[in-house]
Write a structure and sequence with these properties.
binds zinc ion, 4-stranded mixed beta sheet, 5-stranded parallel beta sheet, alpha/beta, single chain, 302 residues, globular
Length: 302
């Protein structure tokens, strides 16, 4: 592989570390007060991912939920000790646009402290539950800057029933605010006509055939000459997780192809190169700084 060719591009791997019952679509099914009583499977599933990443010599970013870190600080230490980046998925898994600014500040501050205490390193990245930084919650970016986060990966440039800013930039960009700046690193999409379609992770990785992800990441690498950002959850490689009584659409989105996701992940790790978000962001930083227009990519003022 030659430097500068699409084959040499290193993509970003990311895992949102939460249990199967934390998922936002189950909010009405498993109330928070019941979380403590549920069978926890997050440690074993995350350890399985760590073994797979070792096998393929891949390092990833793990956006760990503060609630999980509080109960399993040894898991956070293990992830960091095996060479991966620890980042924050917030503390409570409440959607950002359902929180007040003060509550959100407390949530991301608490999570950052728990994670830093557990791994002994600074935490610089944040990803919101269900990508819930939208036009209704852009104030969250100011809070993240003020609380010491350096990058965010919560704004999906798509149309979706629960999240997304469809007109935001598909590339990483810098957001300059009076209190400082933040690099926004959107999940990867590809443009088909007027539509931005997600190509790198989550339900789209499980529900659609594998070729969709492979084609989409290759398209980002080859046509745009930049890294893709892929994401997955530990519960997505756990076909034996307890089934929750959600509605039909939620069940389809959550349980489809759980038994095939590990195989797909192995194919993905064979087909592409990956590293942590932090290192991919650092590698792109020079380009981001020199591209003036990317700072203007959010069409809203707040
Ligand atoms: Zn989540």
């Amino acid at each position: 592989m030659q430097p500068g060719t699409p084959e040499s591009i290193v993509n970003a791997m990311s895992i949102d570390v939460e249990d199967y019952f934390h998922v936002s679509v189950f909010d009405g099914i498993v109330p928070r007060v019941q979380w403590e009583t549920m069978e926890s499977r997050v440690c074993r599933n995350t350890e399985k991912l760590l073994d797979i990443f070792d096998e393929y010599e891949v390092r990833s970013t793990f956006f760990v939920l503060g609630w999980v870190a509080e109960r399993h600080p040894e898991l956070v230490r293990t992830i960091a000790g095996r060479g991966h980046e620890i980042a924050s998925h917030g503390y409570s898994h409440r959607l950002v646009y359902d929180q007040t600014k003060a509550a959100f500040r407390e949530d991301v501050r608490h999570a950052k402290k728990l994670l830093e205490d557990a791994c002994g390193r600074p935490v610089s990245g944040y990803r919101a539950p269900s990508y819930s930084i939208t036009p209704r919650s852009l104030w969250a970016l100011d809070v993240l800057i003020e609380e010491g986060y350096r990058y965010d990966s919560s704004i999906f440039p798509i149309r979706h029933d629960r999240y997304g800013i469809s007109v935001s930039d598909r590339r990483p960009y810098r957001i300059d605010r009076p209190s400082g700046s933040l690099i926004e690193v959107p999940g990867s999409t590809t443009q088909l006509g007027p539509m931005n379609l997600p190509v790198a992770g989550g339900g789209y990785f499980r529900i659609l055939p594998y070729w969709w992800t492979r084609w989409g990441i290759a398209r980002v690498n080859e046509q745009e000459n930049r890294a893709a950002v892929f994401y997955l959850h530990p519960w997505e490689i756990d076909p034996d997780q307890p089934r929750l009584a959600a509605g039909r659409l939620s069940r389809f989105r959550h349980y489809r192809h759980l038994d095939d996701t590990e195989n797909r992940l192995r194919r993905l790790l064979t087909d592409f190169r990956f590293d942590t978000m932090e290192r991919v962001v650092d590698a792109a930083r020079l380009t981001i700084h020199h591209e003036e227009r990317v700072a203007l990519s959010l069409p809203y003022s707040w």
